[in-house]
């Protein structure tokens, strides 16, 4: 699957992340190891999404990262995005696939074991929210149990999401997650680039430790 090996850290942001200018923020995050960016701004107009999307597309291309748009499958071609991310109440995945064909990526948010098991016509899923988060008001936290279920049963790549940061990412890694998606861990960071580097290092640490053990043996 395109770029999934590098896409361990997935950023979800709006057109003005944390009140910052989009271009330098993305440059910092992508330079720090972010491998996929989802532009998600429910309040933005189509023109604002197109303007911001041009910035995201350029930044992701420069760093070899994936660019996805939230919900708006109808804008994927205009944005030259790599795909679309859908929620459970958004455009059905099958309809998005019919619109986009087989080249673009489709992601789907999942919040229950049944949704993880039933994800069809998608290239990856988001699993969460692991912790309660203001970016999803009213959505009950699922904890790490759903991450364990996804690690055992998901048919493709999955990203743990929801209130994750450097302090708690270890728990989802221990539960089987190899990839995470974040919002505030980067949009509210004093140094987004350094925050991204530390998060990605935390994701890679178990694999590095395992490789070191094998070499020592």
Map the helices and strands:
Layout lengths: L8 E5 L8 H10 L4 E4 L6 H18 L2 E5 L5 H4 L3 E4 L6 H8 L4 E6 L2 H6 L5 E4 L17 H9 L4 E4 L7 H6 L5 E3 L1 H4 L4 H25 L1
Parallel strand pairs: 1-2, 1-8, 2-3, 3-4, 4-5, 5-6, 6-7, 7-8
Helix pairs in contact: 1-2, 1-9
Structural write-up:
There is one protein chain. This protein has 217 residues and is α/β, with parallel strands linked by helices. The protein has one domain (9-216): Aldolase class I (TIM Barrel, Alpha-Beta Barrel), CATH 3.20.20.70. It contains 9 helices and 8 strands. It has an 8-stranded parallel barrel with strand order 1-2-3-4-5-6-7-8, surrounded by 4 helices. Helix 1 packs parallel to helix 2 and helix 1 runs parallel beside helix 9. It is globular, with a radius of gyration of 16 Å. The protein starts with 8 loop residues before the first strand and ends with a helix. Mean pLDDT is 92; it is low at 208-217.
């Amino acid at each position: 699957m395109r770029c999934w090996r590098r896409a361990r850290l997935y950023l979800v942001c709006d057109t003005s992340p944390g009140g910052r200018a989009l271009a330098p923020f993305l440059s910092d995050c992508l330079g720090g190891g972010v491998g996929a960016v989802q532009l998600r701004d429910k309040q933005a107009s189509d023109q604002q999404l197109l303007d911001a999307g041009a910035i995201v597309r350029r930044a992701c291309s420069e760093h070899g990262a994936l660019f996805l748009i939230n919900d708006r499958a109808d804008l994927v071609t205009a944005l030259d995005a790599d795909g679309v991310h859908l929620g459970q109440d958004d455009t059905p995945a099958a309809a998005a696939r019919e619109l986009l064909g087989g080249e673009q990526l489709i992601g789907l948010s999942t919040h229950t074991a049944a949704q993880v098991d039933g994800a069809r016509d998608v290239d990856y899923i988001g699993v969460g929210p692991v912790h309660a988060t203001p970016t999803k008001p009213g959505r009950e936290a699922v904890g790490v149990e759903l991450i364990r279920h996804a690690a055992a049963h998901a048919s493709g790549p999955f990203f743990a999401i929801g209130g994750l940061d450097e302090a708690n990412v270890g728990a989802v890694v221990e539960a089987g997650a190899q990839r995470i998606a974040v919002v505030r861990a980067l949009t509210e960071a004093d140094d987004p680039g350094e925050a991204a580097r530390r998060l990605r290092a935390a994701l890679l640490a178990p694999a590095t430790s395992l490789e070191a053990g094998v070499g020592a043996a």
